[in-house]
Amino acid sequence: MALDKPYLDIPGTTIFDADQSRKGYWLNQFCMSLMKAENRTRFKADEDAYLAEWPMTDEQRAAVRARDLNWMMRTGGNIYFLSKLGACDGLSFQQMAGSMTGMTEEQYRAMMVAGGRTPEGNRVIGEGGDAQGPMSQSPAWQEWQDAQAQLALADAVEHAQEAQPQGQARITAAVFTSHVPAIGAAVDMGKTQEPYWKPMFQGYEFSKQWVKDNRPDVIFLVYNDHATNFDLGVIPTFAIGTAAEFEPADEGYGKRPVPTVHGDPDLAAHIAQSVIQQDFDLTLVNELKVDHGLTVPLSLMFGQPEQWPCKVIPFHVNVVQYPVPSGKRCFELGQAIRRAIESYDRPLKVQIWGTGGMSHQLQGPRAGLINAEWDNKFLDRLIADPAELSTMPHIDYVREAGSEGIELVMWLIARGAMADVAGGKAPKVAHRFFHVPASNTAVGHLILENQ
Ligand code: DHB
Ligand code: FE
Fold first, then answer.
1. Of all atoms in ligand 1, which is nearest to the CA of residue 356?
2. Which candidate, 446, 374, 436, places its Cα nearest to that of 199?
3. Quick check: is 360 catalytic?
4. Where are the beta strands (DSSP E) in 178-244?
5. Which of 69, 172, 214, 284 has the maximum number of C-beta atoms within 10 A of its C-beta?
6. What is the pLDDT of residues 393-448, one digit of tens each?
């Protein structure tokens, strides 16, 4: 399903959901910029010039100039962001809220003093309550609407002809792979045939052909941000990238020469809604630069194309600062993600990729730890008994596979999303590969197909 919006029948109320957020992105960012005194000064000195600096729509600029909060909300504004504009004009929250009701400031104040607006008759559109009247509207908005009416009609007629493809999204396969940054550097610098790298890249030759033969529409790519977007200021446990585009990050070596990653904001918003409603608290990330955790797996599977051949939804898991989520939590989250994807009513082929690992330790006197036996047993268990594997405590990952081996919990998200976990058939093992070393890491790679 597209976004489920049970709140549309509440009168006089706009819920700030993913669609509104996308629509109002730059309007809201502009409003936030007014938290800086120097920006307020520049805005007040020349509104048009300041507004021109923000990639808003003309309508949003007109709504700001008219100071019409209902109009700004209609174009994606959210009251907490818009309040920065109101504050800049010296308005209180009561003045701002009142300005949207069609009452005078005094009338609104008096209503609040008398106990506030009653919910009676104001719960559902069509009741007779006092929130049902026409909303207050500036003359500027009225004029704008008249001018736009013809265009909107033509647009609606045009889009009515478009047939949407029918069907449900499906998870077709899971891909598991390490994401060592040196692998990306080897690709970028043309070193894949050197003796050190050749045997490792050979293990992905099958995979490159396989992914050509089994091209997904979207990859749901589970990885960890390595102190790239999320510094120590804010560390989300689980975060989903909802943007239309994600630029490769400059991790200190310069930006990798790889294409921009294209997201699927619509599917990402659907997954976020479904998964959060299944009680997993995701962080929504509307702006994200993707690091080696995401771009190296793409390079391993697709080589060096001009454009990545499909859309990618980045999904970040905190494995940097403890506490990190348990294997069990990750496995259950994968199941929730499968339910989310398979309830999306577009016939998309979706692959879920789990990245990171296998054994590696990047720090301290124990750096360089490799446990090939443990890693291979992990692969066996991931294939055959992931539910049992998911109960393994963190301390085992760290003790046995090194401090950064903890990245392997992310593989359980991808594994949890496979059909057999929900009672379907066991997956087909299309490919399995293991190699030591790539930089400090044991490279593990697995392709599991849903049957
Ligand atoms: C290495 C491996 C990683 O997974 C990573 O995120 C950074 C470095 C390494 O082996 O060098
Ligand atoms: Fe890593």
1. 4
2. 436
3. yes
4. 218-223, 238-241
5. 69
6. 999 999 999 999 999 999 999 999 999 999 999 999 999 999 999 999 999 999 99
